Amino acid sequence: MTAVEDRPQMLAEEFERIALAAEREGVRMEFIHGRLGVKAVPDGDHDEIIRWVMKQCMQQRPDLWLYPERGLRVETYRKGHAKPDGVLAPEGSFAGQGEWADADRAVMVVEVTSYDTDTDRRDRDEKPRAYAETGIPVYLLVDRDSCEVLVHSEPEDGQYVSLVRRPFGKTVVLPDPAGISLDTEPFKAWVR
């Protein structure tokens, strides 16, 4: 990457103003690694996957809550902003915080891939790096293209050092501090 490509497109404060205006028009934006991105609007199957993950979290970890679409500041460098599909955190973690909250209380973030051209770069490359840099303990990616779940954990030096992949239909253990066994069998019904 050249010095020009590595330079942020704008300041984080500028992004926050643009994102707020875009949200009023139904467009969701993120700012990761200094780059502005548009997040696809979820479809019904995407919503069902998040509902199922939320249900499993509530049953197994009633002390935690899966906050949908919680805006987080996700990078120690360049002040990135992301809206994961879900953020698992202790109840009350984001009280009093605005649209973009500190990620220090996040136990896990959840993303479900969208059927758009940007999902590879965004969900499989940029977000794991940003979440690891921020120190979020677990990143769960539900990949509808490959029909598998990827569990990234153990953030160290800006990257996750552990990656577990399981095909839909298998149970996957989300490591501590999440501490959840996630049955992925239902995911098979929610892919194209």
UniProtKB/TrEMBL annotation:
InterPro entries: Nuclease_put_TT1808, Restrct_endonuc-II-like, Uma2. Gene3D superfamilies: tt1808, chain A (3.90.1570.10). Keywords: Endonuclease, Hydrolase, Nuclease. SUPFAM superfamilies: Restriction endonuclease-like. It holds the Pfam family Uma2. The keyword 4Fe-4S does not apply. Residues 13-184 form the Putative restriction endonuclease domain. One of its GO terms (molecular function) is endonuclease activity. PANTHER family: SLL1072 PROTEIN, SLR1083 PROTEIN. This is Uma2 family endonuclease.
